[in-house]
# Entry
Amino acid sequence: MKTAIISFAHMHALAYAKYLVEHPEAELVAIWDADSTRGKEMADRFGSDFYSDLDELLKTDVEAVIICSENVNHKEHVFKAASYKKQILCEKPIATEIADAKEMIQVCDEHGVILQVAYPVRFVPAIQKVKDLVQAGKIGEVMAVNATNHGQMPGGWFVEKELSGGGSATDHIVHIMDVLRWMLKDEVKTVYAEFDTRFYDIEVEDAGLVTLELESGVIVSIDPSWSRPKTFPTWGDVTMEIVGTEGTIAVDAYKQHSLLYNDTDGKIQQMPWAEDMDAGLVNDFIDCVKNDRKPFISGTDGLRTLEVVKAAYEADELKETVLLKRN
Amino acid sequence: MVKVAVIGNSRKHLETWSNIKNVEVIAIVSGKSHEWIPEAHQKKAVSNAEELKTMDVDVVDLCVPVNERAEWIQQIAKEGVHIICETPLAETMEKASSIIKECEAKKVHLFVGNRRRYSPEYADARNQVNNGNVGKLGVTRLSSGAPHPGGEEDIITGLGMIEFDWLLWTFGDVERVMAKHVKKKRRDGWPVEYALITLRHRDQSFTQVELNWAKTTKETSFEISGDTGMLTFNSNESNPISLQLSGSEADVDLEEAVLFKSALERQLEHVAAFVEVQNKPVKRADDALKPIQLAEAARKSAETGQPVSIEGVLK
# Structure
């Protein structure tokens, strides 16, 4: 199966490219990037052809594309790829505006193409295990979830609002939110949040806390802050403590690592040895396309999580709890 | 010699006082039942506080449930005896304020303690924050968990107060509170209770407090992040000893911190040292109002689903 990557603006593209190349049934034949230097470099690195014109790339017989452009450009690239009937895996967040996400879902429906949103955390073995335990009722009735998706400040276009749509809240709420909806089969009822810029001199938020209540009454806290110091041994974390009436499950998605005390570079580093979640995501996408089946992470999943992010910004603005409206 | 009277059934307080130099427990007011009192202290048992009048008591250590404190303090303050007790002072702001006024009128020094302030890890964390080791504060995460003790007291009082007192003391006043609180029953009928409380401080930094009465053991943790660093602690990962005995249940209690001197002993020692010099404990009553105010705001937020502003800074 011939595949392409549209933009390497998001660093996850590197991992996706690697797993496309490694996939026995997929080839990474084409790369487009607005930044031609980066695009050519990536094409060289992954043995692929670089296209400076996206239409030219999409006119080829490429079957599926992975879109890793800046958040605000997802819409344009999804529209264009769909119009050429390409199957799509789009980096999260699906879009920066709810109306855009809805249109993207609609356009992909109309063209009969897959729109899968990249939520790789669903492919972490520990997360799947926890989902099984929770759904089997091992901890009884779930009462509360205390979750974090911390990060170091990523810099680059992530902190330019006109390209990213927002800071740490945009970047980090959606991963936890997606996993919770999937694991608990529940939707958000109310949202409260406050954000601020506390750690860096940047124009977007880098700190904050989100408090949710789900339809079932489960209470949730999400800490999406870019609060990991520069000396932190890895980029960030995804953790959840799920409290049930009969027990508690705590999961640290990136716990499967060894610690390297690295004198050469003067730092301590987490060296992951886990089964890579990005491989799971890419393999699943290829399988979806090959077998013409619906992705189990849909455009609607992307929309639902974006709604929570938008409600969180609104709550922060109003300093009031917001009742979530689903589109 | 500092002469202490202990009111209430607290073997732990009694034993801790006995460890402190220049302190003598001269009376134990424990109502009808004296059985819990160790042999060596039996003859100090008295049935009611009236009997303290005739004794030369420097300070009363009040170890009774929160809802009984107001009445006791009123009675003791009348006799002009100084008082120490653990936070919280009372269930409500109103009651706590009237206790403080009463003590002021009677010129009685009231020390409302919080062991957390004397726990080495928490005391050290405060020093590091004050020394600027993490820089400008960003997001702080505090967690306290234990099995549900049963009883009527809610988790916000039961687990929250000592966190609130410490965080107010360390990070300053709070501007706004958002809280969620759930209480349910396990299959066997025993209660489980959990609260998530999000605070916005006056300096605009954030604190999240997790209170968990669904745990099987006592646990606490903190993570204090700022613009130049982050300080973390987790009681589960800080025990220098791991004991596994084959073929039998461990009967050695490693849950209490591995310290020569407990947090309670540090606190009582601090009180005693002050009494020895000044003949009365250091007054620490005003601090006692803020955690109660915070708890009231958290309860209101949990009830209404909306954030609650803390109006006006307390004196």
The interface with chain A takes residues 136-139, 141, 143, 176, 178, 180-182, 184-187, 192, 194, 196, 198, 200, 204-206, 208, 210, 212, 214-215, 225-230, 305-307 of chain B (CB under 8 Å). The first strand of chain B starts at residue 2 and ends at 7. Chain B has a mean pLDDT of 91.
